[in-house]
């Protein structure tokens, strides 16, 4: 009897693994080549995708641990959120998940890892990193597609991706309808570029010992000082992986997709 139960459990685990792998493969592998540089990315199209229709576009930026060139690791966190059947049905959208090269970074920032939480010195004036430049080119590419709703482009990111999210808002203040930054950081000096244009929802774990939760507090405070009304969720129980409870927020995607670019933006 025990062997029978073990077999059934093992079978369920195998089936779950196969289903998960199949789901992840719904994110198609793509490459964007600009001059001598290549940006590897995955794209998820809505169910029953129709090029004659118009869909929201979500850009998702991964963290530092998912850098590489396998065009796979960037799916580690976040992909399941968009593969959830209820979310696919309720919020049909095109989802882009690019991968940053191992020796690059989404944000223009010097990261000192000698002590934790890490020390961050943002260098926005130096221009975008190669990885960020490629992401900007990717956004330009999809801006030309007729099946993309130009008034409903969104950006989400965690950790390094959260830093990239804030930098993208500063560099493209007229492109995004809303943004979600999880355990991220940014340069408060540039929030005036987008404070009153782009709704922001920031998440952080109060116990985060990698990226100080005060980094999110600084960005939210700067937005408030500019007259914006950002959302902030601080989890008293979470460390750096605050993306887990953030992805579980029942209002997360509902809030994101409820925002639309106004014409005056």
Automatic annotation (TrEMBL):
InterPro entries: AB_hydrolase_fold, Plant_Biomass_Hydrol_Est, PLipase/COase/thioEstase. Keywords: Signal. GO terms for molecular function: hydrolase activity. The lineage of its organism: unclassified sequences, metagenomes, ecological metagenomes. Pfam families: Abhydrolase_2. The keyword DNA damage does not apply. This is Phospholipase/carboxylesterase/thioesterase domain-containing protein. It comes from marine sediment metagenome. Residues 52-226 form the Phospholipase/carboxylesterase/thioesterase domain. The keyword Lyase does not apply.
């Amino acid at each position: 009897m025990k062997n029978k139960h073990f077999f059934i459990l093992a079978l369920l685990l195998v089936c779950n693994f196969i289903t998960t792998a199949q789901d992840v493969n719904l994110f198609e592998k793509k490459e964007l080549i600009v001059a001598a540089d290549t940006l590897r990315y995955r794209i998820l199209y809505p169910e029953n995708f129709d090029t004659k229709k118009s869909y929201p576009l979500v850009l998702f930026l991964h963290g530092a641990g998912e850098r590489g060139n396998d065009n796979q690791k960037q799916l580690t966190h976040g992909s399941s959120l968009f593969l959830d059947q209820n979310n696919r049905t309720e919020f049909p959208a095109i989802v882009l998940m690019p991968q940053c090269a191992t020796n690059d970074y989404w944000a223009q920032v010097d990261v000192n890892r000698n002590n934790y939480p890490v020390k961050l010195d943002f260098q926005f004036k130096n221009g975008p990193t190669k990885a960020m430049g490629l992401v900007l080119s990717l956004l330009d590419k999809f801006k030309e597609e007729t099946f993309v709703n130009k008034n409903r482009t969104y950006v989400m990111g965690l950790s390094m991706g959260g830093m990239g999210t804030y930098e993208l808002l500063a560099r493209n203040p007229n492109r995004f309808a809303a943004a979600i930054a999880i355990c991220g950081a940014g340069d408060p000096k540039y929030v005036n570029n987008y404070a009153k244009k782009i709704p922001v929802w920031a998440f952080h774990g109060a116990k985060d010992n990698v990226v100080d939760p005060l980094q999110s507090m600084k960005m939210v405070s700067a937005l408030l000082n500019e007259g914006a009304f950002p959302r902030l969720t601080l989890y008293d129980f979470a460390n750096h992986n605050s993306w887990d409870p953030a992805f579980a927020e029942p209002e997360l995607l509902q809030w994101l997709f409820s925002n639309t670019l106004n014409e005056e933006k």
